[in-house]
Amino acid sequence: MLILDAHCDTLSEVLDKKIDLFQNSGQLDLKRLYENKNSVQFFAVFIKPGHSAYALTEALKLIDLLKQAAVQYPETMEIALDTKDIRRITSEGKVAAIISIEGGDALSGELSVLRMLHELGVRALGLTWNYRNQIADGVLDDTGGGLTPFGKSVVSEMNRLRMLIDVSHINKKGFWDVLEQSKNPIIASHSNAQTLCGHVRNLDDNQLLALKENGGVTGMNFCPAFLRDDQQATIDDVIKHIEYIAGLIGIEHIGLGSDFDGIARTPTGLEGVQCLPDLINRLFRLNYTKQQVEMIAGGNFMRVLQKVIG
Ligand SMILES: [Zn+2]
Description:
It is a single chain. The chain has helices at about 10-15, 30-35, 55-70, 85-90, 110-120, 150-160, 170-180, 205-215, 225, 235-250, 275-285, 290-310, and strands at about 5, 40-45, 75-80, 95-100, 120-125, 165, 185-190, 215-220, 255. It is of the alpha/beta class. The strands form 2 sheets. Strands 1, 2, 3, 4, 5 and 6 form a 6-stranded parallel beta sheet that branches. A 3-stranded parallel beta sheet has the order 7-8-9. Strand 4, helix 5 (about 110-120) and strand 5 (about 120-125) form a beta-alpha-beta unit. The longest helix has 19 residues, at about 290-310. The structure holds zinc ion. Zinc ion (ZN) binds next to loops.
């Protein structure tokens, strides 16, 4: 069974704190992913706010960091460009890494940059982070505006290039515009259910229903503030979000998007990536079939990846 995590911020953590991607005392490293077996990890190339003049340079530094690690640890991890790569790499016992940009500021307002980032192996792009950029508004900078004309051209070009569009962090109007504009399924790589936890980063029921219509997937975020209003979250709160979303739109639209190393605190029982098998085992102990657990663990994201990136 593949265990696919659609979001971690470990690359930024490694760059900022000068720690080792292979082994560190943070929430995620290659050694633990390798030991989990059958790991597919999206590595976010996070563009910090307020650095738009250097956004592309920052993106290139983080992409380079992951590529250097692939050269340094060829027995442990390989960068995947499509689902065929993912299946081959994991069958060889290695971690399959997907390069994903978090923050369309990296494009510097140019479709040519998007195309070149795709050439470098980037397969997913979160259109915004929390703030407004050339593409759309983020959830913390919501003027009520939707996709800009440039944003619309980015969505169309991503459809053409077969890149995965990620709507975690985008404001509501932007979300609806993306759904209208995109010909392909989209993902919310790391967002939970707003009905259970009112955080602005979560998706409301109408958004979840639209995601079902679109054939997309949302990845369960482990940030305590996105799991419970009182933030006293445990591993069981992740299960509660899974059960709620499964009840509303079906199990086919749920995946994992840990946000490891992007969150200051973790739920009890999910302290790091080594705990992912515990989460899977908990689902087995509930009334889920093996096939349903496989879908949540990674099968649903693989379905979207297969359809979009090939
Ligand atoms: Zn994020």
